[in-house]
Amino acid sequence: MTKKYSLKFWIIFWSVSAIFLIGWYFFCQLYNQKYDTLETMVNLFPWGEQDGKEFVALSKFANYLTKKDDREKTFLILFQNNMELRPGGGYIGSFGILKTKNGSVTKLETHDLSNFDARIPDGIAPPYPIKETLKVSSWKLRDSNFSPDFWVNAEKAEEFYKIGKGEEKFDGIVAINANVLSSFLKVTGPVEVPGFSGTYESENAIVDLEYQVEKGFYKQDIKIGERKAVLGLLGQEIVKKVSSFSLSDKAKLAEIILEDLKNKDIQLYFKDPEMQKQAIAAGWAGLVDMEWSNDYLMVVDANMGALKSDRVIQRSIDYTADFSQSVPEAILKITYTHTAKEKDWMTKDYLTFLRVYAPEGSWLISQLNADKPVYGKELNKQVFGFLMGLPLGQTKTVELRYKISDKINPDDYQLKIQKQSGVGEIPVKVTVIGKDGQSQEYAFSLVAEKIVGE
Q1: Are residues 268 and 409 located together in one domain of the fold?
Q2: What was the pLDDT predicted at 30?
Q3: For burial by CB atoms within 10 Å, which of 114, 155, 175, 298 has the most?
Q4: Cα–Cα distance measured from residue 426 to residue 444, given in angstroms and rounded to the nearest whole number
């Protein structure tokens, strides 16, 4: 059943969402409020705990972005193609610069990264295994999101922007995965772009756009540096539809956008400490939880030259925490299925750099169906990394056995699972075996972070 929210909520949500999603040429709609601040209005309602955090964040964002302070705010918008996964969501093919002032959009420009990255000098060594698998010797903005933590990625993106002699100073950075376009089209319905054949629908838009910017532009005598202009034209057509939306249509889109924020298809980073605090509280900052002290799991993939194959890769996770042995162990099984049967211009045999984030103090005992491991410590976690290949049409299960950290108390056990940005819904099974041999099982679909045993 669709959750019921007040008219005031949808007004706030639409205003804020429009600015965050301006990458698709949405615009901010301003409304007169009967309260001194939107936060005051939000606090009048008895929301649930997480709902309350989200709505307070929305109100603060709206106040921040629409405030009549005569100060221009500048945002870096990263467009991530999650059909080609990176740890932070997807390959960054383009970026936008958005400026707002007194609640209005004053400037929006987009840049193709194939052009901008040419301005970044060679010589910055990329993280493993980009050089080894992609044969790329220098790190650039397009691959800057190689951490599962968006705060890290946002700062790295800005660093590369400055190295490329970008002159803007940013108030915030927003990452938007390609999935968000499908969210819009679920509500707007099919969209046609003048001058281009075909119709963009929620089920096929991402693939059709990929074809247009990789193949179709050749046949249309479009210069390679202008091949992504179709993105802006599509955005303009979406705006035409949205501008005539009824309030109920805007409410439907707002609900979908809220889900995109929850599952990290949209990630937010602000320089303003209060705004960043609110983004973190609402769960929209895309952070790895470095403070969690119980059991922890995050599975992170990085597509290493397998084209856009992530659109046809299915994943499932089976995790067991066994405290009945003298040395407690975790058994992690990650099953990958390559659903494509033959190679084409978007799909080939899959190759991923798989990283598993576990609590500090965990120790790998053995691995099956993955290459020689690499080890690291990152974000207050123990990290096990592997290259793993998967041929077309096949299924493979990577199995890891590792010692559970001594910090984990089986009598007060909880497991936090955080989901990588850009990955779709993942079936998960968790089994917890106590010291007495009794087991408890949990099964669910992972769409956002989940705490087992709370």
Answers
A1: no
A2: 28
A3: 175
A4: 8
Amino acid (one-letter) located at 417: I
**Same-domain status, 149 and 171:** yes
Number of compact structural domains in the chain: 2
Q: Is residue 352 located within the same domain as residue 315?
A: yes
234, 254, 282 — which closes off a domain? 282
Smallest Cα–Cα separation from 76: which of 308, 318, 306, 267?
A: 267
Q: Could you give phi then psi for residue 283, rounded to 5 degrees?
A: 85, 25
**By residue range, what is the domain housing residue 59?**
7-282
DSSP state letters, 358-376: EETT-EEEEEESS-S-EEE
Query: 350-359 and 295-300 as β-strands: parallel, antiparallel, unpaired?
Result: antiparallel
In a domain, 289, yes or no: no
Is 337 contained in some domain? yes
Q: What SS3 class is residue 309?
A: helix
Per-residue pLDDT tens over the stretch 256-265: 877 888 899 9
Q: Look at residues 229, 254, 282 and tell me which one is the last residue of a structural domain.
A: 282
pLDDT at residue number 52: 56
Task: Specify whether 354 is located in the same domain as 421.
Answer: yes
- Confidence check: pLDDT of 44 > 90: no
The confidence score (pLDDT) of residue 54 equals: 73
Number of residues assigned to the chain: 454
Contacts of residue 451, Cβ cutoff 8 Å, sequence gap at least 6: 414, 415, 416, 417
- Same domain, yes or no: 271 and 314: no
Cβ–Cβ < 8 Å for 45, 3: no
**Measured between alpha carbons, how far is 160 from 217 in angstroms, rounded to an integer?**
29
Give the pLDDT score at 280: 94
Phi-psi label, residue 414: left if phi above 0, alpha if psi -120 to 50, beta otherwise: beta
Distance CA 226, CA 37 (A): 43
Q: What is the mean pLDDT of the chain?
A: 85
Nearest to 258 by CA among 316, 187, 320, 317: 187
Q: Are residues 268 and 343 in the same domain?
A: no
Is residue 314 located within the same domain as residue 394? yes
Least confident of 28-37, 50-59, 151-160: 28-37
Instruction: Quote the pTM value.
Output: 0.87
Tokens linked to 324:
């009945």
The reply to whether 436 and 306 lie within a common domain is yes
Q: Measured between alpha carbons, how far is 74 from 171 in angstroms, rounded to an integer?
A: 5
Confidence of residue 207 (pLDDT cuts 50, 70, 90): confident
Q: Is residue 110 a contact partner of residue 119, using CB atoms and an 8 Å limit?
A: no
pLDDT of amino acid 51: 56
Q: What's the CATH code of the domain at 256?
A: 3.40.630
Residue 298 β-bridge partners: 357, 418
Q: What distance in Å separates the CA atoms of residue 454 and residue 291, rounded to the nearest whole number?
A: 17
